[in-house]
Amino acid sequence: MKKRELKTLLLVVLSLCLGCQQPKEKEDETEVEILEANHDSLEVDSAQIVTNFKRQEDCWNRHDIPCYMEAYDSTSDIQTLSRGGLTIGYDSIISAYQKNFPEDRMGNLFFDEMDIRILSKEYAYVTGRFNLKFEQREQLYKGWFSVLMRKRNDGWFIISDHSS
User: Fold this and answer.
1) Which residues of 32-64 are buried (b: 16+ CB within 10 A; e: fewer)?
2) Cα–Cα distance between 140 and 78 in angstroms, integer?
3) What residues form DSSP beta bridges with 107?
């Protein structure tokens, strides 16, 4: 190969290599934008989940179990697991709450120590502590929970709740 042909070939290869690198930078920028968009989405989802739990506190403290249950998906396959065992289905769960928690056994509820993990666009895993304050009792009744939540068009809803 002649020197001139070799120089031309090297220039073509170099041009191609430089041309290949340019779109990669744009891909990196796009990836960063996507990551930032996902971060914003995670913050929105987390805020919606916290709002859901705050609403549960308000409902419970008004002794309004049907309102409290609005945080749960209203399907027949949801479940709760507690010291009392496994309860499956929205209707069974609300009946159990109404039976086991008459107004004088509800106390004032607040959640803390919460950790929210968005698993996907559709699912989140939340752990935390529930606290019940009763007028006749100085010490808080405390326990831990873990819930699996599913996102629907109208928000995040509990589909599995384990409390102890």
Assistant:
1) eeeeeeeeeeeeebbeebeebbeebbebbeeee
2) 28
3) none
Count CB neighbours of 29 within 10 A.
10
Look up residue 72 and give its DSSP letter.
Answer: B
d(C-alpha 130, C-alpha 124), whole Å: 18
Domain that holds residue 51: 3-163
Element (H, E) at 65: helix 65-68
| Single-letter amino acid code for the residue at 64 | D
**How many domains are contained in the chain?**
1
pTM strictly above 0.85: no
Q: CATH number, domain at 26?
A: 3.10.450.50
- pLDDT tens for residues 100-151? 999 988 999 999 999 999 999 999 999 999 999 998 889 999 999 999 999 9
Query: How far are the Cα atoms of 2, 36, 82, 108, 151 from residue 120, in angstroms, in the given order?
Result: 59, 16, 26, 33, 10
